[in-house]
Amino acid sequence: MTQIPPIAKASIDAIRMLALDAVEQARSGHPGMPMGMAPAAYVLWTEFLKHNPKDPLWPARDRFVLSAGHGSMLLYALLHLSGYDLPMEELKRFRQWDSKTPGHPEYGHTPGVETTTGPLGQGIATAVGMAIAERKLAAEFGEIAQHYTYVIASDGDLMEGVSAEASSLAGHLRLGRLIVLYDDNEVTIDGSTELAFTEDRLARYRAYGWHVVPEVPGEDLEAIRAALKAAQADPRPSLISVRSVIGFGSPLAGHHKAHSDAMGAEKVAATRQTLGWPHEPFVVPEEVYSDYRQAIEKGARAQAEWQVRLDELISTNPQKAAEFQRRLEGKLPQGWEVHLPTFAAGEKLATRAASGRVLEKLVPLLPELMGGSADLTPSNNTRTPDMTDFSHANPAGRYIRFGVREHAMGAAMNGMALSPGLRPYGGTFLVFSDYMRPAVRMAAIMGVPTLFVFTHDSIAVGEDGPTHQPVEHLMSLRAIPNLWVIRPADARETAMAWKMALKRTDGPTALILTRQALPVLEGVRPKGVERGGYILSNLPQARAAIVATGSEVSLALEAQKALAAEQIPVRVVSLPCWEAFEAQPETYREGILPKSLPTLAVEAGATLGWERYAQRTLGLNRYGASAPLAQVYPKLGFTSEQVAAEVRALLGLA
What we know:
This protein is α/β, with parallel strands linked by helices. It folds into three domains: 6-294, Rossmann fold, CATH 3.40.50.970; 336-519, Thiamin diphosphate (ThDP)-binding fold, Pyr/PP domains (Rossmann fold, 3-Layer(aba) Sandwich); 532-650, Rossmann fold, CATH 3.40.50. 42% of the residues lie in helices and 13% in strands. Strand 9, helix 17 (437-446) and strand 10 (451-455) form a beta-alpha-beta unit. The mean pLDDT is 97.
């Protein structure tokens, strides 16, 4: 191992001490990982990472993902030292209210943070999506869209199942510009990795099809440098095992107690002495700033060179350049909505099939649409005839075979959504939304427009039985803040649901679609769908309202007819999207569902939550059963006759 030059040592120790001082001041945090991985991060950020601190959103920048988000002070120190808009005062306010330095990195909150991380495994899996996006956009637009995606991941990241799913997919796709620095320090919160994590991790990644660099000494800058160069040269994704020492330089070095929490004044002072760091807390010498802030000039030069290439494209191929700019700005082509398909009243088709017909119209018009399925393509109707598969051999393809990897699909789609130029969607059964829920939640937290297509939406799945019949899932998804959950009643509402999802840019959307065929309804109001709820059918002097979603709207209409024959007029309200409805003015909501009008809610799922709209609910608070749809629905009480009976009971007429 070559000796570390004095300026490099000071710059590395600056990361360590800033992390230690910030955690100490906050009396909270994780100092061990930043202290151990400081040398690897220093080499990466000063010699390899292509970035411009003065323009954190430069499209051609390399992406850096701190998957081990608990070590957030590593990233905050790097951002501050490199010249991003993160002043020292924010480091001093680490983990405090409204600071730019929250406990885990948050996308859109701190300049230079590429994705929210913290739940282990999410960062590396999201980075796989970023690498997919880079490969796809580079295939379309060439060198101006190329970048590397670098990750620092921990033992915990590699233990989580989502990272295994995503890493397997990355190896299959040969995403050569994805490079992971694995903090292989053999320590977790409980103690040694020998307690619970003893498989050969490097052999596992070789089996995934990755290029693996084993056991790089964590303090050997030359070895780290060589490993990164080898990774850049290899056509496969790369895992570099960095044998770091957690809490390096502190009295707790190498011990699991270095992982979390402040070390205390005595140990901090001892660390200063061990490292030879004579400065007061939060003091960084000018030569260290000068070392790191070469990134500003280098980044500006790299961006200027990129701009020259972009200008050349503008002059030689203005149409392609204009498309590139449109995609980067996230603007949809003008007039795309007029191409949405129309559906004839009386036609019967499943909303999943209607969704497929919508995609057939939109895919040729919106090249930013890139979709896939978790091995359920024929069931989800997510692939159109003119889509080709995205692969190592065909990076221009627009359809991703995610395999049976729901969680990785969700996280990867988030990474794609974080990459300007793409609008990702992916399909699976609604019941498997549980498998990917952490990724759905991350999309909602970050406010990215990931589009989740969930089909087979209820007990109408039938013969597959309770394991595949979602009951609690709708309400579970509605409980996620900033997630729009849209359950259309027919094909016309399905087309509008896609319009709503694609127009939305500040958060994710879940489309909830049927397996079974539904009639195309009269009276569907497109603007009412966009507002989340509307009066689908109203009779004069209505004595009650029936509010429903999805396939149960048809039952409500049938019940309305039966009740009208008994001189009991009722109103039928379709409420496909609670979140959009709640965003409407109170006057609109009151006009649709007046508090004075007795209301029955009908939905083939858990009833929890419907009390906000209805005094009585026909729902399902038990699991389903294996039987044909024609038996399951009536056996569990979902018939027009039962809906009518519930209205009578609501009005005291039973």
